[in-house]
TrEMBL record:
Alphabetically ordered keywords of this record: ATP-binding, Calmodulin-binding, Kinase, Nucleotide-binding, Phosphoprotein, Serine/threonine-protein kinase, Transferase
Species of provenance: Morchella conica CCBAS932
Substrates-to-products reaction catalysed: L-threonyl-[protein] + ATP = O-phospho-L-threonyl-[protein] + ADP + H(+); L-seryl-[protein] + ATP = O-phospho-L-seryl-[protein] + ADP + H(+)
Top EC class, one word: transferase
Domain of life where this protein originates: Eukaryota
Keyword Kinase in annotation: yes
Annotated GO MF terms: ATP binding; calcium/calmodulin-dependent protein kinase activity; calmodulin binding
Family note: Belongs to the protein kinase superfamily. CAMK Ser/Thr protein kinase family. CaMK subfamily.
Name of the protein: calcium/calmodulin-dependent protein kinase
Binding locations of ATP: K55
Length: 406
């Protein structure tokens, strides 16, 4: 039977590797971008993540797919998702990687009863260890953010892994300068936003933003448009507000300050950063920072309701680009756009798109069905309700602390 199917595929113009597709049963949507979609799948070895890239979307830039594959095949580290397999069809590339099932960093932290500065040092050390491995292999991730930091399994002692290497780059030399736009709004380094050319130092900047947010529950930069954000970052003024940073160690602030240097040459290398005193955990306090993180996540869920609209539009646009399937084949792009967006937003794998993509997505919004809009609006409302409840809980905790101190 397999031989017959293989011959049938050859007659229909499918590449030899297409035979592998029958080993994967596609499941829920994990995310979507300009070039394709990421789906969970059942395989002979268990659940995996399958990135499906439309060839039509990368026509003329096929080398970017080959570069990603080459990069993934080189990676072998406990804090980085591993490569599993690859195959292709007439109109798509498929990249199979390890599936992290333990949830995103901040979601997982919120499930804990307590999270201290000492706990934060363990998290940051895991991230930095992965970054140092990449940099020692002349690889820059370029999109470090909380959504790309996942726990491998639901187990309490699960490893934290770095995912999404879609815009990662291999450098020819240590001094190679990259010029393409990369990263996510709020986490991208100043040199990236100003198109000055960048290298490994961008990952250290992003780690600085993540560490700051992890310790206080909000970003060090709060501008809402690119021009103001660039100006804010260039000022280089990192403020540690007394209300939220009281009780956090001086070493933590020094560590963050060293990473958030406007001049990339002033930032430590990943190897140098690993030697920082704060990461030893000896000077870190036992201050519980969970209430601040829960407040941050409540706001993040509201933003994800808005992001859901964008994700639905991306999936809708991919559906329109997908070539006609051969008889008997199921489309790789989900038909229920709203449901796929609701599934995908939980993993938040979609990056903030550049302006031209935003424009395409706004046009695509008109194509969303009423049912899709209703489902998305419901999620936005529920996110707002969750935010209000979380704020009430945090307020009650703060009032309780204030009453106890009297």
């Amino acid at each position: 039977m397999e031989l017959v199917a293989s011959v049938f595929h050859r007659l229909n113009g499918q590449p030899a590797s297409y035979d592998k597709k029958s080993q994967y049963k596609m499941g829920r949507t994990l995310g979507a971008g300009t070039y394709g979609i990421v789906r969970e799948a059942e395989s002979p070895s268990g659940k995996v993540a399958v990135k499906i890239i439309l060839k039509k979307s990368v026509k003329g830039n096929e080398e970017m797919v080959q570069d990603e594959l080459k990069l993934l095949k080189r990676l072998d580290h406990p804090n980085i998702v591993s490569f599993k397999d690859t195959f292709e069809s007439r109109d798509k590339y498929y990249i199979v990687t390890q599936l992290a099932t333990g949830g995103e960093l901040f979601d997982r932290i919120c499930e804990k009863g307590k999270f201290t500065e000492k706990d934060a040092t363990v998290v940051v050390l895991s991230i930095l260890t992965a970054v140092n491995y990449l940099h020692s292999n002349n690889i820059v991730h370029r999109d470090l953010k909380p959504e790309n930091l996942l726990y491998l399994t639901p187990s309490p002692d699960s490893s934290l892994v770095l995912a999404d290497f879609g815009i990662a780059k291999m450098l020819d030399t240590d001094t190679t300068v990259l010029t393409s736009m990369a990263g996510s709004f709020g986490y991208a380094a100043p040199e990236v936003m100003m198109k000055k050319g960048h290298g490994k130092a961008v990952d250290l900047w992003s780690l600085g933003v993540i560490t700051y947010t992890l310790l206080c529950g909000y970003s060090p930069f709060r501008s809402e448009n690119m021009e103001e954000l660039v100006e804010e970052c260039n000022k280089g003024r990192i403020i540690f507000h007394e209300r939220y940073w009281k009780g956090v160690s001086k070493d933590a602030k020094l560590f963050i300050g060293s990473l958030l240097q406007t001049n990339p040459d002033d930032r430590p290398s990943s190897a140098e950063a690993l030697k920082h005193t704060w990461l030893k955990g000896e000077t870190a306090s036992d201050k519980d920072i969970l209430p601040e993180i829960k407040s941050y996540m409540a706001k993040a869920r509201l933003r994800r309701g808005v992001e859901m609209v964008k994700l639905a539009n991306r999936i809708e646009a991919l559906k329109l680009r997908e070539d006609d399937q051969e008889a008997g084949e199921t489309s790789d792009i989900p038909s229920n756009t709203a449901q796929a967006a609701c599934e995908g937003i939980t993993s938040a794998t979609a990056r903030v798109p550049p302006p031209q993509e935003e424009e395409e997505e706004l046009k695509g919004a008109r194509r969303l069905s009423r049912a899709a809009r209703t489902a998305i609006f419901r999620e936005v409302v529920l996110a707002k309700v969750r935010e209000m409840k979380a704020e009430e809980e945090i307020k009650a905790v703060e009032e309780g602390k204030a009453g106890a101190s009297k």
